[in-house]
Amino acid sequence: MSFLELFKREGLIGAHRGSRSIRPENTLSALKESVGHCDFIEVDVQLSSDKVAVIMHDETLDRTTNVKEKEAYKTRAPYKLSDFSYEELSNLDYGSWFYTNEIKPEPLLTLKIVLKFIKENQLYLNIEIKDLHNSFSDQDVVSIILEEIKASKTQKFILISSFRHEYLQLFKKIEPSIPTAALVDSEHPKDLVKYLKLLNVDAYHFNDKLVDKKIVNILRDAGFYINIYTVNDSKRRQQLFDMGINGVFTDYL
User: Does residue 140 lie in a domain region?
Assistant: First the structure.
């Protein structure tokens, strides 16, 4: 079954950065914890300075790593991920920040490791490509991520999404078989259906604050799949499913 076939099911639950309510987000332990409790997993992908695809949400490393504690990196503020090499990133702890009065280190998670994990467990993965255009060309970003997917032979398990819609157009041009989703946060683009068709996306992911029944009906009638973030209230989830939403991203599985 492909990701698009998965969308034909109702009431889909997406694990937002893995099971991030009980494990450090975007780590392998968060992904493992979400197995059996969701329909697909969502992770965020960026590139190291030497162009290795790594899993991280924030543009900077200070919130979810121990980078500030590393003497060698004291002068590297604001600790922008794309300024660090893969080797440098591998020296950080991605887990202990999450726990109170405990040291539970987590290693760097790469896209390669994630793809191996989903293939072994037959899971579906939403890869959100963070906006990296200030550091890398769109062609490089898309090509590197697509190369990893093809090498792992996981195309059927993948959905690509991004707030940088140029990535989505390029991705579809190079590999039209992999579904894509446009992400928006504060407002819908003008002439929404026309715009999404221009992007050639399969799905539309938007903030719960932007949801209304009219928009949902318009999108569904136009043939787009709809997923809403970030929905942590069970009653709200059901309201959205009753409205015709395909799936929700949640921190609480």
Answer: yes
